[in-house]
């Protein structure tokens, strides 16, 4: 099963949702998918800690009342490990002391259940924007510049329209421009863990991105590194 292409102006972000209420989790994942997010999910604290430790997520959505422990532990461990990933806590605990305590522990935002899913989308984008402001906003290589905030690609001074997964693939390659990037790492930047992926899916995305770069006259190409993956090369 494949997600539909949302449009070239949508942000393709990877989200980790840690929530033990399956009905609410499915509703949340469906809503976020409509807004261009790729969502990985965990229903226990243990699984959430494992997935959060793997990295690769722009934001974590965290329920506190998990069946095997308090979600506060995940915030504490992330901050102890100096992980910068934003965490939005989702909890029925609405007391001021609860909220203040979590924010002081290292959470970036706090939503009291029940909440509107459109507000959740807005909160996600807000914390990601704040985090992006602290990082390098542009990735550049040869005559190509990729704006990580707007998701816009500029080649030789001209904007080039890319589809969300093409942009995500380009960003992953630009992060290690000139070096081989393994296939599994590239796939993890495009799809959530439970999505079905064909054996040639990545090759198809690479083919489309190569064509767009060539049509734009870029001095950049994507080289196949047998046994490793792909790498950006400057002409």
| Element pattern in H and E | EHEHEEEHEHEHEEEEHEHHEE
CA(first)-CA(last) distance: 37 Å
| Mean pLDDT value | 85
Continuous helix count: 8
What is the approximate shape? Answer: elongated
Compute the CA-based radius of gyration: 19 Å
Structural class by secondary-structure content: alpha/beta
**Largest β sheet strand count, sense and barrel closure:** 5 strands, parallel
**Beta-strand content bin:** 15-25%
- Helix proportion range: 25-40%
Within the CATH hierarchy, at the fold level, what is the topology of the largest domain? Rossmann fold
Strand order of the largest sheet: 2-1-3-6-7
Count of beta strands: 14
The CATH architecture of the largest domain is 3-Layer(aba) Sandwich
- The total domain count is 2
Could you please describe the fold and organization of this structure?
The structure is a single chain. Helix content is 39%, strand content 25%. By secondary structure, it is an alpha/beta fold. The chain folds into 2 domains: 13-133, Response regulator (Rossmann fold), CATH 3.40.50.2300; 138-234, Winged helix-like DNA-binding domain superfamily/Winged helix DNA-binding domain (Arc Repressor Mutant, subunit A, Orthogonal Bundle). A 5-stranded parallel sheet has the order 2-1-3-6-7, with helices on both faces. The protein has a 4-stranded antiparallel sheet with strand order 8-9-10-11, covered by helices on one side. The protein has a 3-stranded antiparallel sheet with strand order 12-14-13. Strand 10 (153-155) and strand 11 form a beta hairpin. Helix 6 packs across helix 8 (201-215). The relative contact order is 0.12. The model is unreliable at 1-11 (pLDDT under 50).
């Amino acid at each position: 099963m494949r997600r539909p292409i949302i449009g070239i102006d949508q942000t393709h972000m990877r989200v980790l949702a840690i929530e033990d209420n399956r009905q609410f989790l499915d509703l949340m994942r469906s809503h976020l998918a409509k807004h261009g997010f790729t969502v990985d999910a965990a229903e226990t604290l243990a699984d959430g800690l494992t997935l959060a430790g793997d990295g690769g997520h722009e934001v974590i959505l965290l329920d506190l009342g998990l069946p095997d422990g308090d979600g506060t532990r995940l915030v504490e461990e992330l901050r102890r490990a100096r992980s910068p990933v934003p965490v939005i806590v989702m909890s029925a605990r609405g007391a001021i002391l609860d909220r203040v305590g979590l924010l002081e522990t290292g959470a970036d935002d706090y939503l009291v259940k029940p909440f509107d899913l459109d507000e959740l989308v807005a909160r996600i984008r807000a914390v990601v924007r704040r985090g992006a402001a602290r990082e390098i906003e542009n990735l550049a290589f040869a005559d190509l510049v990729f704006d990580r905030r707007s998701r816009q690609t500029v080649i030789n001074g001209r904007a080039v329209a890319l589809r969300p997964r093409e942009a995500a693939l380009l960003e992953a390659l630009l992060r290690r421009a000139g070096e081989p990037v393994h296939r599994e790492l590239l796939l993890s930047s495009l799809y959530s863990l439970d999505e079905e992926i064909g054996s040639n899916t990545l090759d198809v995305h690479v083919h489309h991105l190569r064509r767009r770069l060539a049509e734009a006259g870029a001095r950049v190409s994507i080289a196949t590194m047998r046994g490793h993956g792909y790498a950006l090369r400057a002409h």
